[in-house]
Design the sequence.
């Protein structure tokens, strides 16, 4: 029963968070200086009628409260609205951008999780050795590197070897499946690698810290005293108990996958959600911004909820 | 499904790609005779819909996929045939009759006739205050457009305009059989139509478009005019200029539409042909010229404005900011537009002594800190600079110390362009608060648009100077309604002199259009807008392998 209460509370909290975020998103972008209409009407042939027409078309001639009510009504019908910038449904714009972003960010995050976990475990297990020092210094170096700088360095380093821009070679005519896959792999390598390298340091530090904590516990000493093999001590006793903070970090990272990576997408000309949001900010494309932040909010809240539920499963103390 | 499988397989494969290295191959690029000309750009095609599009590359695309009545010749000085083969004004210039091509076809095989042109103009007129508002300025003063037969278009005006061909050179003719299905909701649906796949009738047909990524055009075999030499043309969009340059050096693309100044030397050294020509993009120093502004009214004093003009070292701006790929600017009509620019309007000399003298004469004495005092306050002003015009940062760094030498203190206020424009027009489009700004303008060949931006009617629209002068507005209207082009030119020249005297803008530098192309390709036609432009259909029709 206490378990059901816990799950219900988390669910209610998640729904409330989404609603509050929706309201803040609506207000926040409208507080920014600059008018969407003035911006969009700056084409060479624009007349005062153009601006009036745009205002009416986007409903910006209505009061802020009316706009908010209309926005909530549309949301209730699953309608994210029409982009001010290209007059296409926001859902279609977001879908295209997300399809482009998710594989790249997922791959980079996965790389970071795997590499960070391995280096974190090694650092903790080999505490006080050169291996730990090298691992920590490398992790911290990458962690502190500005993402766009690292991306640019990789562009310079791999120019002529791997593609430096775009998602694929669109000039290939009727490529075979294998050629297409290879082409996609070549294009995704550098942006995913950049993201992975920048992120993995954080995993290294968290995993190392969690592992050090559990390795100092009495039950680990007992396991060693019982004559268990080092690998068994590490896997069954230390790593398993260090999973809680690692789970949180992974869940949070996965939640941010849909946010894309603005700097990486810009450096590598990756037409993803990060760039779409950046453009929307510059153009004051409120519906696009609201849609993108709604998706991001839901994603973060969802993965936090998953983390909470996993905690519930992983940590019996919560149910006590 | 295939795409998802490919993405999944890619994700798995890429994990092992960290150490992967192979020479990038362009083998698939030139699979056909004639080849695919691959151009990289840091700009973007924001929409395929002419009623929505904003970016210049979108308008460049329309030039190559849609018919226009006329286009400029290769010297950009006179109008030549596009879809119209001849034209004749009658009734004192109030009626224009165009003869159009016969046997022309849209890319879906439907006939392209003068009726499509008449429908486009009529639709733009009908929905000028709604879905077609973007094109409203192009059909100003038109009363009706009719096609008495398939090859004749008759356009009637309420007054004889002075720039009929200049306006039609910018008006894409749309296929009636496609677009007439999207006029619902009182014309608003014109804007929500994605227009992809695009049915056109230009020298190229758009076969692939991925926003912010790629636009691929194939030669249109049924085009009514000069057939392109290349089989296809692709525009790859980059959001990072270093990656763009790296892609050219690695031969992943064949050309760069607009080369960043810092990469010119590198590309020349790498053996690429780097070409440049005088451009129509000019940077400017804006002085709030609204006579009703509340504070810092000394900036309305023409002597102060003249002093500022003499405190600007344009040669240094050209040398440092644009690395020599620009020319000192002086007039609202760029010199690259040819005969429309008044050669008598020259840049002011860089003369700090003269600037100081002018300010002394105006009665603004220097304080103990060297900053002059006007009306009880220091002559210290914010200069708004838009972040998306990076040249404004370095330009400000050049202006600031020189202005200090004449007793004027400048502070930079950097804002994104939407916020910057808001800061200029505030409150409520009355231009009361701002003092100075740095920005740029990209002119068209016909001067009408540039001359319009300082009219009173542009308050809240294009105006970024708060300039409103009834005498100037009268001249503007007069040039619009002067069909005799020699007389119109004299008026346009007079307006440029007038603006230089009133100085809502101090023009700084006209940037060159600079592009780079692989030695394997030739034939691109130079224009002030670069090799991919909305001036005519020549450049990409003539580009060829060599």
Sequence:
């Amino acid at each position: 029963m206490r378990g059901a209460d816990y799950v219900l509370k988390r669910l209610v909290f998640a729904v409330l968070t989404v609603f509050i975020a929706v309201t803040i998103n609506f207000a926040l972008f409208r507080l920014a200086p600059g008018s969407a209409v003035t911006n969009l009407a700056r084409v060479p042939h624009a007349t005062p009628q153009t601006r009036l027409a745009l205002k009416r078309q986007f409903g910006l001639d209505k009061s802020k409260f009316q706009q908010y009510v209309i926005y909530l009504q549309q949301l209730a019908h699953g309608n994210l609205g029409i982009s001010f910038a290209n007059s296409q449904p926001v859902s279609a714009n977001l879908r295209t951008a997300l399809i482009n972003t998710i594989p790249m960010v997922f791959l980079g995050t996965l790389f970071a999780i795997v590499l960070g976990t391995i280096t974190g475990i090694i650092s903790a297990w080999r505490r006080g050795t050169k291996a730990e020092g090298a691992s920590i210094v490398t992790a911290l170096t990458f962690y502190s590197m500005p993402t766009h700088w690292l991306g640019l360095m990789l562009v310079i380093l791999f120019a002529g070897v791997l593609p430096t821009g775009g998602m694929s070679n669109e000039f290939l005519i009727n490529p075979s499946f294998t050629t297409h896959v290879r082409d996609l792999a070549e294009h995704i390598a550098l942006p995913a690698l950049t993201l992975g390298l920048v992120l993995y340091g954080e995993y290294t530090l968290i995993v190392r810290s969690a592992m050090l904590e559990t390795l100092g516990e009495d039950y680990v000493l007992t396991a060693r005293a019982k004559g268990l093999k080092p690998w068994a001590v590490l896997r069954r006793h230390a790593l398993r108990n260090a999973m809680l903070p690692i789970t949180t970090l992974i869940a949070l990272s996965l939640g941010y996958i849909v946010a894309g990576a603005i700097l990486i997408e810009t450096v590598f000309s990756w037409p993803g959600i990060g760039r779409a949001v950046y453009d929307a900010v510059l153009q004051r494309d409120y519906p696009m911004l609201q849609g993108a932040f709604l998706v991001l909010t839901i994603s973060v809240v969802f993965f936090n909820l998953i983390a909470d539920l996993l905690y519930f499963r992983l940590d019996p103390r919560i149910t006590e | 499904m295939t795409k998802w499988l490919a993405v999944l397989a890619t994700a798995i494969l890429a994990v092992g790609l960290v150490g992967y290295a192979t020479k990038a191959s362009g083998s698939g690029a030139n699979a056909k005779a004639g080849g695919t000309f691959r151009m990289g750009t840091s700009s973007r095609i924001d929409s395929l819909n002419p009623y929505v599009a904003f970016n210049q590359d979108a308008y460049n695309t329309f030039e190559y996929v849609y018919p226009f009545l006329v286009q400029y010749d290769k010297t950009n000085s006179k109008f030549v045939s596009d879809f119209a083969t001849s034209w004749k004004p009658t009734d004192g210039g109030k009626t224009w009759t165009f003869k159009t091509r016969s046997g022309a076809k849209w890319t879906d095989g439907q006939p392209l006739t003068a009726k499509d042109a008449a429908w486009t103009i009529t639709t733009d007129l009908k929905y000028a205050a709604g879905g077609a508002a973007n094109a409203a300025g192009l059909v100003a003063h038109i009363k009706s457009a009719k096609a008495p037969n398939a090859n004749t278009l008759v356009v009637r005006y309420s007054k004889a305009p002075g720039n009929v061909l200049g306006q039609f050179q910018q008006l894409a003719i749309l296929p009636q059989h496609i677009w007439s299905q999207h006029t619902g909701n009182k014309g608003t649906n014109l804007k929500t139509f994605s227009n992809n796949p695009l049915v056109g009738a230009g020298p190229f047909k758009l076969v692939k478009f991925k926003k912010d990524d790629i636009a691929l055009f194939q030669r249109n075999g049924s085009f009514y005019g000069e057939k392109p030499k290349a089989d296809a043309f692709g525009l790859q969009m980059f959001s990072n200029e270093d990656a763009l340059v790296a892609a050219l050096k690695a031969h992943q693309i064949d050309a760069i539409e607009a080369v960043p100044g810092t990469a010119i030397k590198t590309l020349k050294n790498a053996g690429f042909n780097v070409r440049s020509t005088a451009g129509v993009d000019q940077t400017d120093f804006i002085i709030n010229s609204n006579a009703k502004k509340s504070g810092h009214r000394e900036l309305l004093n023409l002597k102060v404005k003249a002093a500022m003009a003499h405190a600007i070292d344009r040669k240094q701006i050209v040398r440092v900011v644009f690395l020599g790929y620009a020319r000192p600017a002086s007039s609202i009509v760029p010199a690259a537009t040819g005969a429309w620019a008044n050669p008598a309007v020259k840049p002011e000399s860089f003369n700090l002594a003269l600037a100081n003298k002018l300010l002394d004469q105006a009665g603004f004495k220097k304080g103990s800190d060297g900053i002059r005092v006007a009306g009880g306050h220091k002559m210290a002003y914010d200069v708004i600079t838009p972040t998306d015009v990076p040249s404004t940062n370095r330009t400000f760094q050049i202006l600031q110390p020189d202005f200090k030498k004449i007793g004027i203190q400048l502070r930079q206020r950097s804002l994104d362009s939407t916020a910057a424009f808001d800061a200029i027009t505030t409150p409520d489009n009355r231009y009361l608060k701002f003092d100075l700004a740095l920005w740029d303008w990209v002119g068209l060949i016909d001067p009408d648009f540039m001359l319009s931006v300082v009219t009173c009617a542009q308050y809240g629209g294009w105006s970024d100077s708060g300039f409103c002068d009834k005498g100037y507005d009268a001249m503007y209207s007069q040039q619009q309604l002067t069909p005799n082009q020699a007389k119109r030119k004299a008026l346009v020249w007079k307006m440029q002199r007038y603006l230089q005297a009133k100085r809502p803008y101090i023009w700084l530098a006209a940037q060159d259009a600079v592009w780079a192309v692989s030695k394997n390709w030739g034939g691109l036609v130079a224009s002030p807008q670069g090799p991919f432009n909305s001036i005519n259909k020549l450049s990409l029709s003539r580009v060829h392998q060599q």
Summary: The first strand of chain B starts at residue 36 and ends at 41. Chain B touches chain A through 84 residues (CB under 8 Å). Residues 1-32 of chain B have pLDDT under 50 and may be disordered.
